[in-house]
């Protein structure tokens, strides 16, 4: 009788303990990201030894070829733009706006160079945990994350500069040469802090005792990580809204000046189209960062295609501003071609700001598209 009572008590205790384990289903653990960047899904494989079918392999090779081609195009375009900036440096130094362009172009060049030297080799060479390639990938990914943030915030600074010219001219004094250098220094410090924080404290994972698995929280659990993620996502939308407001102000000034001709209207529309392309490119990069953890459980071929697409999106994002400057900006095109004498530069280089502002201080504050 006593033995039966003891066994019943032990079984009852065991059942209670089991219920307690089931109820405590999740534990939040903050982990340092071992493999930063977008390539963490494919680090343990190379494109030459993938265990996929021929049907799955062809799209991967096509995506990798497009990625390599985009890197070459990016290097060529950014190199040309840097040469143009160097050749016209004396002329560009008269306009504080180009100080922002220098910082943005530096970020573009560093980003594409890191893609060439870290990401592209990763597709073809082993990157196991102990290899030097893995360490170099981590260094490169850290730099790529910094330059992605730099592209976002220096594009934002250019947008605010243009917004000030057309909508709030009273704050143009902030955009002096000294003011832009101070703001740019703050931006570099800020984006380095963002990347440092996200790298060390931003990856929060939930462990499920029921499924015995880890699930990554997309926005993290700390306030700063959520703020950085949400701000990066919504800033391109805010920039697009600012450009739309600029477009409305331009059209109103056109009506007041009774200066509605087809050529200038097309140029106004071009401003909005370029802004739309720039902001979409920024938004795609931010959205891919958020969605990448969701691809950890899909097929290997889909992981490769998604990863290469993410890297292509970042390169296009770094390319879009230099390409627009080379193709559209009059001052850059004049410097590139060397066809126009110096005395004609003043009239042409002020861009769309010269349509409305007569006084030289305002004109010299910004050069837009």
TrEMBL record:
One of its GO terms (cellular component) is membrane. It holds the Pfam family 7TM_GPCR_Srx. InterPro entries: 7TM_GPCR_serpentine_rcpt_Srx, GPCR_Rhodpsn_7TM. Residues 78-325 form the G-protein coupled receptors family 1 profile domain. The chain crosses the membrane at residues 57-85, 97-124, 144-168, 180-199, 227-250, 271-292, 304-328. It comes from the Eukaryota. Keywords: Membrane, Transmembrane, Transmembrane helix. It is found in: Membrane. PANTHER family: G-PROTEIN COUPLED RECEPTORS FAMILY 1 PROFILE DOMAIN-CONTAINING PROTEIN (PTHR22718:SF25), SERPENTINE RECEPTOR, CLASS X (PTHR22718). This is G-protein coupled receptors family 1 profile domain-containing protein. It comes from Caenorhabditis briggsae. The lineage of its organism: Eukaryota, Metazoa, Ecdysozoa, Nematoda, Chromadorea.
């Amino acid at each position: 009788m006593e033995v039966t009572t003891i066994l019943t008590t032990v079984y009852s205790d065991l059942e209670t303990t089991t219920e307690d384990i089931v109820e405590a289903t999740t534990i939040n653990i903050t982990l340092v990201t071992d493999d930063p960047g977008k390539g963490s899904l494919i680090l343990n494989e190379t494109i030459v030894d993938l265990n996929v079918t021929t049907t799955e392999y062809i799209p991967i090779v096509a995506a990798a070829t497009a990625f390599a081609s985009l890197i070459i195009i990016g290097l060529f375009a950014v190199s040309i733009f840097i040469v143009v900036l160097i050749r016209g440096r004396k002329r560009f130094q008269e306009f504080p706006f180009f100080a922002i362009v220098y910082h943005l172009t530096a970020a573009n060049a560093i980003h594409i160079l890191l893609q060439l030297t870290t990401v592209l080799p990763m597709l073809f060479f082993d990157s196991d945990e102990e290899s030097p390639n893995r360490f170099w990938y981590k260094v490169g990914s850290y730099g790529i994350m910094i330059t992605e943030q730099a592209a976002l915030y220096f594009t934002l600074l250019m947008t605010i500069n243009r917004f000030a010219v057309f909508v709030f001219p009273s704050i143009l004094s902030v955009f002096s040469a000294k003011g832009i250098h101070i703001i740019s220094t703050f931006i570099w410090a800020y984006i380095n802090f963002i990347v440092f924080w996200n790298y060390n404290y931003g990856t929060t994972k939930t462990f499920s005792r029921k499924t015995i698995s880890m699930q990554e929280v997309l926005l993290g659990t700390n306030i700063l990580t959520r703020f950085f993620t949400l701000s990066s996502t919504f800033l391109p939308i805010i920039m697009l809204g600012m450009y739309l407001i600029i477009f409305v102000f331009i059209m109103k000034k056109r009506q007041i000046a009774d200066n509605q001709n087809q050529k200038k209207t097309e140029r106004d529309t071009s401003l909005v189209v370029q802004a739309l392309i720039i902001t979409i490119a920024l938004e795609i990069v931010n959205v891919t960062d958020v969605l990448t953890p969701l691809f950890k459980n899909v097929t290997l071929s889909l992981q490769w295609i998604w990863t290469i697409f993410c890297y292509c999106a970042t390169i296009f994002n770094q390319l879009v501003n230099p390409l627009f400057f080379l193709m559209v900006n009059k001052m850059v095109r004049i410097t590139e071609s060397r066809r126009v004498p110096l005395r004609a530069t003043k009239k042409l280089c002020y861009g769309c700001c010269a349509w409305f502002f007569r006084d030289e201080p305002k004109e010299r504050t910004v050069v837009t598209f």
